[in-house]
Amino acid sequence: MTEPMKEKAYDRAYFDRWYRDPRSRVRAQGETRRKVAMVVALAEYYLGRSVRNVLDVGCGEGVWRAPLRRLRPRIDYLGLDSSGYAIARFGRARNLRLARFSDLAELRFEQRFDLIVCSDVLHYLRAPELVRGLSGFAELLGGLAFIELFSSRDPVDGDMAGFIPRPPGWYRKRFAEAGLMACGSHCYLSPLLQRSVSELERADRQESR
């Protein structure tokens, strides 16, 4: 009989190792700031206005909040994560709440989000939880989603515990089923914005001519 897989502990030691220790951290200095600037600019390009609210799914300690606030001081930021440690330590100060990815199938808020961020999360999730959570994106998203992940065809550095190497086509199919349109650089558009997108802006077209 095989033993059940031990659930990963997203505790202080985990975040110290992968996000603060210069010997093992997965983000180079300034990388998150540059990524935030790119994502906000692209979201505002398609929205035709400034980003007003952000949902950060799998937010960890909420590291996107500060660079988002530097760009847009009045932005409304909400982070969701399954780490009891992160919510207990930073929940009140950074507006983080306890939730699993699959909870997005039912969770709804007073308004849709201009930007949904989900960085470095999906390749650790089992398929049922991933598909269930994605099913809620079409109703939660009013603008652009940044869904950063690694596939079986990508070189991966950092935390490999629980990493699930799926082919790129598997993810493309799941995103399409959830109503999301790829527009490049891990970014996907809400169904509400897709009518205004030209064919060559789409990153999901595979044509021979």
From TrEMBL:
PANTHER family: MALONYL-[ACYL-CARRIER PROTEIN] O-METHYLTRANSFERASE (PTHR43464:SF83), METHYLTRANSFERASE (PTHR43464). Residues 55-141 form the Methyltransferase type domain. This is Methyltransferase domain-containing protein. The keyword Methyltransferase applies. GO terms for molecular function: methyltransferase activity. Keywords: Methyltransferase, Transferase. The keyword Secreted does not apply. GO terms for biological process: methylation. It holds the Pfam family Methyltransf_12. InterPro entries: Methyltransf_12 (IPR013217), SAM-dependent_MTases_sf (IPR029063).
